[in-house]
Request: fold
Amino acid sequence: MMLRSSRALLWFAFLLTHASACAKAPASCPPDEGVALQVLGSGGPIADDARASSAYLLWVDGKARVLIDAGGGSFLRFGEAGARFADLDFVGLSHFHTDHSADFPALLKSGNFSGRTRALAVAGPSGNSRFPGLIEYLSSMLDGDSGAYAYLNGYLDGSGRLVQLEPVEVDSSAAEPALVMDNADNGLQIHALGVPHGIVPAIAFRVTTGDLSFVFSSDQNMSGPGYAEFARDATALVVHMPIPDDAGDAAKSLHAVPSRIAETASAAKPQVLVVSHFMARSLRDPAQGVDVLQQHYSGEIVLAEDLSCIAP
Ligand SMILES: [Zn+2]
Reply:
């Protein structure tokens, strides 16, 4: 393991002293066969944690089939992971904070050179008065007249040797999960559910392949009554834990504190809880969050690192 700073050294020392939290032997991605979850970005929105912002890949039989989120830095990690744009079956964008979506247009441009010929399904939340929905987000970038990246307009209409995106906008206020992909050819079934993240429309994803399910919580405060059920018995449940239990009310309206995450995980009972979305202050005092989590949750925990690989 390469340690990039004294802060990373502190984090490494913390991991060593919390070996029981990380008992699972590291897997290697991409796997030749089977399914594995790879973290592309385990960081938050501030460029001081030496991590990419939020992004996750699901590998199936050696190919990167599903990308969830594309925060800043994930463009680089996508390439480092050996993922190919041409292999993607689905991109899910949980919400339109930059640390979850800013590298998506860069990945689209990269895809221009991938030789891909088939359409690409993209799901994201509906909007409100403060945030765009998926359709408006894509138009703001790709519209041929007004888009910031109008030169990539072919992603909207399939022109210019670009593949058409197939957007699925999910009602982020709906109480029930929405089915956003059910594909017999690739064996992927994907549901999305609105989650509370302050005023920001946001959705979580549950990706099922065979008898395995991977749940990506997005940023959220975990006050939604149906969330533990949505995440129940997941093979891996990815949660974001950027704030401590004594955070202020504004932060708590956006994010779940460790004790709340523990409560949700205890109800959902995943095989492994993947804790991610760390910020510099989390790295300075990781015990503040993870110790609280472990006091209230006895299941297996993995602390995410960029490019870490988790196989069932
Ligand atoms: Zn957010």
